[in-house]
Specification:
With about 150 residues, this protein is α+β, with helices and mostly antiparallel strands. It has three helices and seven strands; from the N terminus they run βαββαββαββ. The termini are far apart.
Length: about 150
Amino acid sequence: MLYLYDGGLKVADILKEWYEQELENNYGAYIPFVGTVRSEDGIDGLSFDIYEPILESWFDSWQEKAKAKGAILKMAHARGDVMLHESSYVSAVFSPKRRVALEFIDEFVEAFKASAPIWKYDLKDGKRIYAKDRSTAIEGSGILGEKR
């Protein structure tokens, strides 16, 4: 289940909704991860562009991996501007066993940072500036994926 929102995420509402959705499904572990925009390099926030068709396909492949382990994966991400100390990213794994959930959330978050088709921009002095130095090339993305 992939959820996209405009602007900063309402983390408490999202986590509560997910918990209630899975409450009676007999999962022994619920492991969330929340990503928050932190103050660095004088930014006012971050802004995100998402290529939704590729993100959906990418996320579907991760849901299949979770399903093979008897788990469920959920993710929410912000589109557009997210200001300091707001959340841009939330994911969670539900699993009958804690070890599966702990290992899978780690693997998923690392893969997300490395290969999800989401482009990040710094918001600074009223400008939106591509955060190239903190971005990771997406494998197979042609000129955008070239290593320099």
